[in-house]
Amino acid sequence: MAEAAQALGTPKTQTTNHGEVVIGELPNDFLRMPNPTNYDQVANDEKMAKEMAAMEVQQQNMMSQMMVVTNRFKITVLEAKLNKNYGVVRMDPYCRIRVNHRVYETDTSYNGAKNPQWTKSISVPLSEPVEHIYVEIFDEKSLTTDSRIAWTRIELSEQAKKGEQVDDWWPLSGKLGEEMEGTVHIVMSIAKVQQATPMPPMQPMPGMPLMLPGGYTVQTPGVMQSAQFYQPGMPMYQAQPGMPMQQQQQQQQPTPVPQGPLFTEADVKQIKEMFPDVEEDAIKTVLEASRGNKDAAINSLLSMQ
After folding, report:
1. Are 115 and 134 in contact (CB under 8 A)?
2. Is the pTM of this model over 0.90?
3. What is the C-alpha to C-alpha distance for residues 40 and 42, in angstroms, rounded to an integer?
4. Is 186 exposed, middle or buried (0-12, 13-18, 19+ CB in 10 A)?
5. Are 161 and 75 members of one domain?
6. Quick one: 165 and 246 in the same domain?
7. Are 140 and 93 in contact (CB under 8 A)?
8. Residue 134 lies in a domain
9. pLDDT tens digits, residue range 35-51?
10. Which of 138, 163, 227, 280 has its CA 20 to 30 A from that of 127?
11. Count of domains in the chain?
């Protein structure tokens, strides 16, 4: 077995009262310190993996979405049957629909004359209840102003308000008289729709690693004080004992000051000359994280080298 071990390159050992000892010729790497470069590389890889994992969690939080339920008023304008063709040539009608403070139009039915067809579907987000809609039909003109040839006001029925689909023809008024201009075919309903609303992006906390283009990471300047409260997108407040937090926030509300650009292209160019191997996008990101402080940005870039 000893000969087989030696053939495989394993040093021969002998058991003594003090444990196993190596006998015979010592291997070439005996008592040799391991290469520190390998350990540095492993440590750097481990650190980078942790930073990438933290960055991935941050990106997932930024992309997280909150589902909200909204009411949408769905209208489909199909066609119209008009009783008169106004003008010398065939009319080119289009339809205009007003829902509360929103206005929509169909495409023009060229040469539609008295039987225009549109099949136009509209989905209207509702921020307030709808009691009625206005429908107007115009004749598109090339050289003069479009002329209104028919109109109507449609009161929403209880069926439509409850979410049931209403499919009907409504009479049109015009120059021929009240409800004498023809009819318009409309399908409508109110439905509840789940809509994904993006969450506000996370702001970097002071001292939090920031990932830059090209795989660089840098610590954002600043240290969080334990007596301060911070929420992304909100001002920072200093806690005062014996006073309600809401009152403290009102008293400490900072006066808004017009802010100019944090840095200029000249600043970017100056730092680029000092760090020619760093991309401009990375320099701009560091300047933004440093709130335009060039000295802090330079120190951060030096720590990346």
Report:
1. no
2. no
3. 5
4. buried
5. yes
6. no
7. yes
8. yes
9. 555 556 667 777 777 77
10. 138
11. 2
